[in-house]
Amino acid sequence: MGSLFRSEEVCLVQIFLQTGSAYNCVSELGELGIVEFRDLNPNVNAFQRKFVNEVRRCEELEKTFVFLEQEIARSLSQKLQAPIPTPPAPQPRELLTIEEESERLTRELREVCYFVCVFPCKCAPLVSFEPVALAENRQDVRLSFVSGVVHPWKVPSFERLLWRACRGYIIVDFHEMEEKLEHPDSGEEVQWTVIWIWFFWYVPQTHSFHTQTFPYPESQAEREETLNGLRGRIEDIKSVMGETEQYMQQLLVRALARLPEWIVQVQKCKAVQTVLNLCSPSVTDKCLIAEAWCPVSQLPALQSALREGGRKSGSGVDSFYNRLPASTSPPTLFPTNSFTAGFQNIVDAYGVASYREMNPAVYTIITFPFLFAVMFGDVGHGLLMTLVALWMILEEKDPKLRKNTNEIWQMMFGGRYLILLMGLFSIYTGAIYNECFSRGLNTFSSGWHVRPNAEYYNWTNQYLSLDPNITGVFTGPYPFGIDPIWGLANNHLTFLNSYKMKMSVIIGVIHMTFGVCLSLFNYIHFNDISSVFLVLIPELCFMLCLFGYLIFMVIYKWVVYGPMTSDSAPSILIHFIDMFLFTENKDNKPLYTGQMVVQKVLVIVAVLSVPVLLLGKPMQEYITHKRKRTPLSVSNPSEFDAANVFMHQAIHTIEYCLGCISNTASYLRLWALSLAHAQLSEVLWLMVMRISFQQLSYVGSVIMVVIFAAFAVLTVSILLVMEGLSAFLHALRLHW
């Protein structure tokens, strides 16, 4: 549990791998995934490393697999499924077997594919000659004769060429085939045109038009004999083509059964060889030396993996490790599971915490869905989102869902627990807003009553006004959330805007203050007490003296001024402006006695905290550096770049002060997005769903079904998908 709030403790280990068992040891470590190897050969070219030939061998196998995968997708129209269970890295003999089988399969498949492509080309001229041979030469004059087929697009230009080349001494006849035949080059179905040409002495040039010409026997008997032989050859070729295609299907099915496992095995083998390239040989060249980062809690698992690798290799000497002192900061490791992975990715997308710092993802589990729900609050929409997330969680073990390669689906499925919490928090905030598909729920009795107001009401007014100062009109606040009667009020939008605007500022300041306070635990953990007084306290003073006081005024006004005195309540906005101007507005009475003195003190404290934040840390580091210098180190003092330290602190100070102002304004998007979502929901209900309630006949039931279908589609596409994505992105911005 401690590693969830703070990154896990990591140490640097030096691993001695016996040459005979190095492959299996690294393979076992890779299956566990508990170490991160360092490159001990940074100055060695990638092509000069010891195991580069093995890596190239795996890359060649991957190229072979790509060809097989393409052929499977083209002929079988199937996608490869990940093997279950995942196979381990292959042994050298197994890799040799994979290489031989894949090469033999590829070679056979290439030969079959070649014949499958060649047979149609061989068969096309024979099929084209059949309609030519069936025609009869009815000319009595002894003329030279040639026949063939030509593409129908080239018939007009071909006819003109023949007429000009033969000077008119030619007879040409064209007829379209009854059936379409495959083009030998492009493979498309073409309705060829049969040509007959009679000429006296000149043989026309037909090759430029890619025509196919055939010898035409003189007698009918010879033509029938030629045609019978032609049909027999066509049948033989078709029979061979069928057997060849069947054999190709068998090869592809066999490849489909083995290829997924081969791909995983070769990828693991390549990864192992790549890690071995990071190792350096020992002086005696009997073992490989590797350095890796490993969690301290996983050191027993590291030793067990080394022993298991040695056992599989049959090595008489076990590999072992030693802990080394680290000269650099270890990498940050936050162990995650299927629930916390989505929230950790949100934080890591902005930046990864330094080693042993607090993990913000723990608090993001609550704050992110909550801020999303403030903008997306609706009981109905949150319930739909929750049901979708529950379906993904209950079916998370389904291989079809886990192995789906669609990028958008993978993103949604990986964040299924995040979507679940967003839906649940949306139900909660929707209950506070009292909105369910933009309609209010009268779960409890309303605190407002019309009957006591009847004797005071002017019946000539268009609107009925409920005065809480009249006894019996307002009996008390609604038990939970907004009173549903506000949905009928003419000024409900004004009331909700005021409520959501102030709520957004309060949530924003609390969220930012909590983030600043988290640094206290980091300073205490790293024993950096000076930063508590020179960084943390000035930051809190600047934040709380300005925006914390703004929250105090909002809450104070809510508590002090009730329905009886609401008309004389002062303006908080004017008070906040006068606070910076050190002026007093006589038209805006103070909230409490001594307000001007308190505000002046708060502004002075906030202004003085800025130079402390700007100069305190650089001066403290400079003084500490001067004290560390001893007489022996005066001749060669360690470098201290005061300009760099001051510039870094100046950037931090400016960014923090401006960020307090801009981010407070940014949190108003909670109000804006919530208002937009509520208004879109109301427009969709009034313009679509309410139409179905106007028909009272039997036809109205049919119309209601149709309109409800349209309402459901628009609700899912606009309010759930588009508005949900918008609220998600804004919540992401507020956390970043």
TrEMBL record:
It is a multi-pass membrane protein. It comes from the Eukaryota. The keyword Plastid does not apply. GO terms for cellular component: plasma membrane; vacuolar proton-transporting V-type ATPase, V0 domain. The chain crosses the membrane at residues 368-394, 415-433, 503-524, 531-556, 597-616, 696-722. GO terms for molecular function: ATPase binding; proton-transporting ATPase activity, rotational mechanism. GO terms for biological process: vacuolar acidification. This is V-type proton ATPase subunit a. It comes from Cyprinus carpio (Common carp).
